[in-house]
Amino acid sequence: MKTSKQIQEDFESYLQSLDYSRKPDELYAPIRYVLSLGGKRIRPTFLIMAYNMYADDIESVFSTAAGMEIFHNFTLLHDDLMDRADMRRGKPTVHKKWNDNTAILSGDGMLVLAYRYLALTKSQYLKRTLDLANETFTGIMEGQQYDMEFETRNDVTEQEYIEMIRLKTSVLLAACVEMGAVLGGACDADARLLYEFGEKIGIAFQLQDDLLDVYGDPAVFGKKIGGDILCNKKTYLYINTYRLANKEQREALDRWAVYDGNDPDSKIAGVRAIYDAVGVKGMSEKLIGSLFDKAMAKLDKVNLPAEKKGLLKDYAGSLLNRVL
Q: Which end of the chain is more exposed for a tag (fewer CB within 10 A), N or C?
Protein backbone atom coordinates (compact mmCIF):
# COMPACT_ATOMS: atom_id res chain seq x y z
CA MET A 1 0.00 0.00 0.00
CA LYS A 2 1.17 3.52 -0.76
CA THR A 3 1.43 6.28 1.83
CA SER A 4 -0.71 9.39 1.66
CA LYS A 5 2.33 11.40 0.53
CA GLN A 6 3.07 8.98 -2.31
CA ILE A 7 -0.57 9.02 -3.38
CA GLN A 8 -0.70 12.82 -3.31
CA GLU A 9 2.45 13.09 -5.41
CA ASP A 10 1.24 10.57 -7.99
CA PHE A 11 -2.22 12.09 -8.18
CA GLU A 12 -0.87 15.63 -8.45
CA SER A 13 1.23 14.59 -11.44
CA TYR A 14 -1.86 13.10 -13.04
CA LEU A 15 -4.01 16.16 -12.32
CA GLN A 16 -1.47 18.60 -13.72
CA SER A 17 -1.08 16.47 -16.87
CA LEU A 18 -4.74 16.87 -17.82
CA ASP A 19 -5.35 18.83 -21.02
CA TYR A 20 -7.16 22.17 -20.73
CA SER A 21 -5.85 23.59 -24.01
CA ARG A 22 -9.19 24.08 -25.77
CA LYS A 23 -10.23 27.56 -26.89
CA PRO A 24 -11.07 30.20 -25.89
CA ASP A 25 -8.16 30.44 -23.51
CA GLU A 26 -9.99 33.03 -21.41
CA LEU A 27 -12.33 30.21 -20.33
CA TYR A 28 -9.66 27.60 -19.57
CA ALA A 29 -6.86 29.78 -18.15
CA PRO A 30 -8.74 30.32 -14.86
CA ILE A 31 -9.38 26.57 -14.62
CA ARG A 32 -5.69 25.83 -15.06
CA TYR A 33 -4.94 28.56 -12.52
CA VAL A 34 -7.29 27.15 -9.88
CA LEU A 35 -6.01 23.60 -10.26
CA SER A 36 -2.38 24.78 -10.21
CA LEU A 37 -2.78 26.41 -6.79
CA GLY A 38 -2.25 23.05 -5.15
CA GLY A 39 -3.84 22.37 -1.81
CA LYS A 40 -3.78 19.22 0.25
CA ARG A 41 -5.89 17.18 -2.24
CA ILE A 42 -7.64 15.69 0.77
CA ARG A 43 -10.69 14.32 -1.04
CA PRO A 44 -8.91 12.47 -3.86
CA THR A 45 -6.37 11.19 -1.35
CA PHE A 46 -9.14 9.70 0.78
CA LEU A 47 -10.74 8.15 -2.32
CA ILE A 48 -7.49 6.58 -3.50
CA MET A 49 -6.46 5.41 -0.02
CA ALA A 50 -9.86 3.76 0.50
CA TYR A 51 -9.47 2.02 -2.86
CA ASN A 52 -5.93 0.96 -1.97
CA MET A 53 -7.21 -0.89 1.11
CA TYR A 54 -8.91 -3.31 -1.30
CA ALA A 55 -6.85 -3.13 -4.54
CA ASP A 56 -3.39 -2.12 -5.70
CA ASP A 57 -3.89 -0.58 -9.16
CA ILE A 58 -4.58 2.90 -7.79
CA GLU A 59 -3.97 4.64 -11.14
CA SER A 60 -7.22 3.10 -12.39
CA VAL A 61 -9.25 5.42 -10.10
CA PHE A 62 -7.31 8.63 -10.73
CA SER A 63 -9.91 9.85 -13.23
CA THR A 64 -12.71 9.39 -10.69
CA ALA A 65 -10.62 11.11 -8.04
CA ALA A 66 -9.95 13.95 -10.49
CA GLY A 67 -13.67 14.37 -11.09
CA MET A 68 -14.32 14.78 -7.37
CA GLU A 69 -11.37 17.16 -6.92
CA ILE A 70 -12.35 19.31 -9.89
CA PHE A 71 -15.89 19.54 -8.53
CA HIS A 72 -14.53 20.55 -5.12
CA ASN A 73 -12.47 23.33 -6.68
CA PHE A 74 -15.48 24.47 -8.71
CA THR A 75 -17.39 24.97 -5.45
CA LEU A 76 -14.48 26.93 -3.97
CA LEU A 77 -14.33 29.19 -7.01
CA HIS A 78 -18.01 30.09 -6.75
CA ASP A 79 -17.89 30.22 -2.94
CA ASP A 80 -15.08 32.80 -3.10
CA LEU A 81 -17.18 34.87 -5.47
CA MET A 82 -20.22 34.73 -3.19
CA ASP A 83 -18.13 35.63 -0.14
CA ARG A 84 -16.14 38.31 -2.04
CA ALA A 85 -12.98 36.59 -0.79
CA ASP A 86 -9.71 38.10 -2.04
CA MET A 87 -7.33 35.19 -1.40
CA ARG A 88 -7.35 31.42 -1.77
CA ARG A 89 -4.28 29.34 -0.88
CA GLY A 90 -2.23 32.50 -0.66
CA LYS A 91 -3.11 33.68 -4.19
CA PRO A 92 -5.75 36.05 -5.62
CA THR A 93 -9.12 34.41 -6.20
CA VAL A 94 -10.39 34.10 -9.77
CA HIS A 95 -12.89 36.96 -9.55
CA LYS A 96 -10.08 39.22 -8.27
CA LYS A 97 -7.50 38.11 -10.83
CA TRP A 98 -10.03 38.21 -13.70
CA ASN A 99 -13.60 39.33 -12.99
CA ASP A 100 -16.96 38.07 -11.69
CA ASN A 101 -18.27 36.88 -15.05
CA THR A 102 -15.11 34.89 -15.71
CA ALA A 103 -15.41 33.25 -12.29
CA ILE A 104 -18.99 32.21 -13.01
CA LEU A 105 -18.33 30.83 -16.47
CA SER A 106 -15.04 29.10 -15.69
CA GLY A 107 -16.65 27.59 -12.62
CA ASP A 108 -19.42 26.22 -14.81
CA GLY A 109 -16.74 24.79 -17.07
CA MET A 110 -15.16 23.02 -14.10
CA LEU A 111 -18.50 21.42 -13.25
CA VAL A 112 -18.70 19.96 -16.76
CA LEU A 113 -15.08 18.78 -16.54
CA ALA A 114 -15.81 17.07 -13.24
CA TYR A 115 -18.51 14.95 -14.87
CA ARG A 116 -16.26 14.25 -17.86
CA TYR A 117 -13.71 12.57 -15.60
CA LEU A 118 -16.30 10.86 -13.41
CA ALA A 119 -17.68 9.32 -16.60
CA LEU A 120 -14.35 7.49 -17.05
CA THR A 121 -15.09 5.34 -13.98
CA LYS A 122 -15.07 1.57 -14.52
CA SER A 123 -18.28 0.69 -16.34
CA GLN A 124 -19.58 -1.79 -13.75
CA TYR A 125 -19.44 0.94 -11.08
CA LEU A 126 -20.37 3.94 -13.22
CA LYS A 127 -24.06 4.24 -12.30
CA ARG A 128 -23.41 3.79 -8.58
CA THR A 129 -20.62 6.37 -8.76
CA LEU A 130 -22.73 8.92 -10.60
CA ASP A 131 -25.71 8.33 -8.30
CA LEU A 132 -23.52 8.94 -5.26
CA ALA A 133 -21.93 11.99 -6.90
CA ASN A 134 -25.30 13.48 -7.83
CA GLU A 135 -26.72 13.03 -4.32
CA THR A 136 -23.52 14.49 -2.86
CA PHE A 137 -23.40 17.48 -5.18
CA THR A 138 -27.06 18.24 -4.49
CA GLY A 139 -26.36 18.17 -0.76
CA ILE A 140 -23.47 20.59 -1.19
CA MET A 141 -25.72 23.08 -2.98
CA GLU A 142 -28.29 22.72 -0.20
CA GLY A 143 -25.59 23.33 2.39
CA GLN A 144 -24.41 26.45 0.58
CA GLN A 145 -27.96 27.81 0.51
CA TYR A 146 -28.32 27.24 4.25
CA ASP A 147 -24.97 28.97 4.78
CA MET A 148 -26.16 32.05 2.91
CA GLU A 149 -29.49 32.10 4.75
CA PHE A 150 -27.75 31.84 8.12
CA GLU A 151 -25.93 35.13 7.47
CA THR A 152 -29.19 37.05 7.90
CA ARG A 153 -30.58 34.99 10.81
CA ASN A 154 -29.92 35.56 14.49
CA ASP A 155 -31.50 32.34 15.74
CA VAL A 156 -29.30 29.69 14.10
CA THR A 157 -28.80 26.74 16.45
CA GLU A 158 -25.72 24.57 16.86
CA GLN A 159 -27.68 21.61 15.46
CA GLU A 160 -28.61 23.59 12.34
CA TYR A 161 -25.01 24.65 11.86
CA ILE A 162 -23.67 21.11 12.17
CA GLU A 163 -26.20 19.94 9.58
CA MET A 164 -25.20 22.78 7.26
CA ILE A 165 -21.50 21.89 7.37
CA ARG A 166 -22.35 18.20 7.02
CA LEU A 167 -24.01 19.04 3.72
CA LYS A 168 -21.68 21.75 2.49
CA THR A 169 -18.38 20.10 3.40
CA SER A 170 -18.60 16.68 4.98
CA VAL A 171 -20.67 14.73 2.45
CA LEU A 172 -18.08 15.27 -0.30
CA LEU A 173 -15.29 13.79 1.80
CA ALA A 174 -17.56 10.94 2.92
CA ALA A 175 -18.58 10.20 -0.66
CA CYS A 176 -14.95 10.05 -1.74
CA VAL A 177 -14.14 7.47 0.93
CA GLU A 178 -17.16 5.35 0.03
CA MET A 179 -16.51 5.73 -3.69
CA GLY A 180 -12.94 4.51 -3.36
CA ALA A 181 -14.01 1.53 -1.30
CA VAL A 182 -16.79 0.57 -3.74
CA LEU A 183 -14.45 0.81 -6.72
CA GLY A 184 -12.04 -1.46 -4.86
CA GLY A 185 -14.73 -4.10 -4.33
CA ALA A 186 -15.78 -3.41 -0.73
CA CYS A 187 -19.00 -4.96 0.52
CA ASP A 188 -21.97 -2.70 1.16
CA ALA A 189 -21.55 -2.84 4.94
CA ASP A 190 -17.92 -1.72 4.76
CA ALA A 191 -18.77 0.99 2.23
CA ARG A 192 -21.41 2.38 4.60
CA LEU A 193 -19.04 2.33 7.59
CA LEU A 194 -16.41 4.14 5.56
CA TYR A 195 -18.95 6.75 4.50
CA GLU A 196 -19.83 7.36 8.15
CA PHE A 197 -16.13 7.51 9.01
CA GLY A 198 -15.60 10.15 6.32
CA GLU A 199 -18.69 12.08 7.34
CA LYS A 200 -17.48 12.51 10.92
CA ILE A 201 -13.96 13.37 9.82
CA GLY A 202 -15.43 15.92 7.42
CA ILE A 203 -17.48 17.68 10.11
CA ALA A 204 -14.46 17.72 12.43
CA PHE A 205 -12.29 19.08 9.63
CA GLN A 206 -14.71 21.95 8.95
CA LEU A 207 -14.91 22.80 12.65
CA GLN A 208 -11.12 22.91 12.68
CA ASP A 209 -11.19 25.13 9.59
CA ASP A 210 -13.53 27.49 11.46
CA LEU A 211 -11.04 27.59 14.32
CA LEU A 212 -8.16 28.36 11.99
CA ASP A 213 -10.15 31.16 10.39
CA VAL A 214 -10.09 32.90 13.75
CA TYR A 215 -6.94 31.62 15.43
CA GLY A 216 -4.73 30.39 12.58
CA ASP A 217 -1.57 31.75 10.99
CA PRO A 218 -2.40 33.42 7.64
CA ALA A 219 0.88 32.16 6.16
CA VAL A 220 -0.15 28.58 6.93
CA PHE A 221 -3.91 28.97 6.47
CA GLY A 222 -3.48 30.40 2.95
CA LYS A 223 -6.00 33.22 3.33
CA LYS A 224 -6.72 36.15 5.58
CA ILE A 225 -7.74 35.41 9.14
CA GLY A 226 -11.17 36.52 10.29
CA GLY A 227 -13.11 36.14 7.06
CA ASP A 228 -15.97 34.36 8.82
CA ILE A 229 -16.23 37.17 11.36
CA LEU A 230 -16.28 39.86 8.67
CA CYS A 231 -19.00 37.98 6.76
CA ASN A 232 -21.04 37.46 9.96
CA LYS A 233 -20.91 33.69 9.46
CA LYS A 234 -22.91 31.78 12.03
CA THR A 235 -20.16 29.32 12.87
CA TYR A 236 -20.01 26.96 15.83
CA LEU A 237 -17.80 29.55 17.53
CA TYR A 238 -20.22 32.43 16.99
CA ILE A 239 -23.40 30.49 17.80
CA ASN A 240 -22.09 29.21 21.11
CA THR A 241 -20.43 32.50 22.02
CA TYR A 242 -23.75 34.29 21.55
CA ARG A 243 -25.53 31.60 23.55
CA LEU A 244 -23.08 31.82 26.46
CA ALA A 245 -22.44 35.57 26.37
CA ASN A 246 -23.68 37.93 29.05
CA LYS A 247 -25.83 40.97 28.22
CA GLU A 248 -22.88 43.28 27.64
CA GLN A 249 -21.09 40.77 25.41
CA ARG A 250 -24.22 40.12 23.34
CA GLU A 251 -24.72 43.81 22.81
CA ALA A 252 -21.12 44.06 21.62
CA LEU A 253 -21.63 41.17 19.20
CA ASP A 254 -24.75 42.87 17.87
CA ARG A 255 -22.83 46.10 17.30
CA TRP A 256 -20.05 44.31 15.47
CA ALA A 257 -22.61 42.49 13.29
CA VAL A 258 -23.76 45.80 11.77
CA TYR A 259 -20.35 47.49 11.82
CA ASP A 260 -19.60 49.03 8.44
CA GLY A 261 -16.50 51.03 9.31
CA ASN A 262 -13.18 50.99 7.47
CA ASP A 263 -11.22 49.07 10.12
CA PRO A 264 -12.05 45.37 9.65
CA ASP A 265 -9.17 44.33 11.89
CA SER A 266 -10.88 46.00 14.84
CA LYS A 267 -14.02 43.91 14.22
CA ILE A 268 -12.01 40.70 14.04
CA ALA A 269 -10.13 41.53 17.24
CA GLY A 270 -13.29 42.63 19.04
CA VAL A 271 -15.28 39.50 18.25
CA ARG A 272 -12.32 37.23 18.95
CA ALA A 273 -11.90 38.81 22.38
CA ILE A 274 -15.48 37.80 23.22
CA TYR A 275 -14.81 34.27 21.92
CA ASP A 276 -11.83 34.13 24.29
CA ALA A 277 -13.86 35.44 27.21
CA VAL A 278 -16.51 32.70 27.00
CA GLY A 279 -14.00 29.92 26.25
CA VAL A 280 -15.58 28.73 23.02
CA LYS A 281 -12.25 27.72 21.48
CA GLY A 282 -11.87 24.91 24.00
CA MET A 283 -15.45 23.78 23.41
CA SER A 284 -14.79 23.50 19.70
CA GLU A 285 -11.57 21.56 20.23
CA LYS A 286 -13.41 19.12 22.50
CA LEU A 287 -16.11 18.51 19.88
CA ILE A 288 -13.49 17.96 17.19
CA GLY A 289 -11.85 15.33 19.40
CA SER A 290 -15.17 13.60 20.04
CA LEU A 291 -15.99 13.44 16.32
CA PHE A 292 -12.56 12.06 15.58
CA ASP A 293 -13.01 9.29 18.16
CA LYS A 294 -16.40 8.37 16.67
CA ALA A 295 -14.86 8.26 13.19
CA MET A 296 -12.16 5.90 14.40
CA ALA A 297 -14.81 3.64 15.94
CA LYS A 298 -16.49 3.37 12.53
CA LEU A 299 -13.19 2.58 10.83
CA ASP A 300 -12.37 -0.07 13.42
CA LYS A 301 -15.58 -1.93 12.45
CA VAL A 302 -14.58 -2.20 8.78
CA ASN A 303 -13.95 -5.87 8.00
CA LEU A 304 -10.29 -5.59 7.09
CA PRO A 305 -7.07 -6.40 8.95
CA ALA A 306 -5.85 -3.54 11.14
CA GLU A 307 -2.73 -3.07 9.01
CA LYS A 308 -4.90 -2.42 5.95
CA LYS A 309 -6.67 0.43 7.76
CA GLY A 310 -3.60 1.88 9.45
CA LEU A 311 -2.56 4.34 6.75
CA LEU A 312 -6.07 5.75 6.42
CA LYS A 313 -6.30 6.12 10.19
CA ASP A 314 -2.93 7.87 10.35
CA TYR A 315 -3.87 10.21 7.51
CA ALA A 316 -7.12 11.25 9.18
CA GLY A 317 -5.21 11.81 12.42
CA SER A 318 -2.62 14.00 10.72
CA LEU A 319 -5.33 16.26 9.24
CA LEU A 320 -6.80 16.91 12.68
CA ASN A 321 -3.51 16.95 14.58
CA ARG A 322 -4.45 13.83 16.50
CA VAL A 323 -1.84 11.47 17.90
CA LEU A 324 -2.93 7.82 17.56
A: C
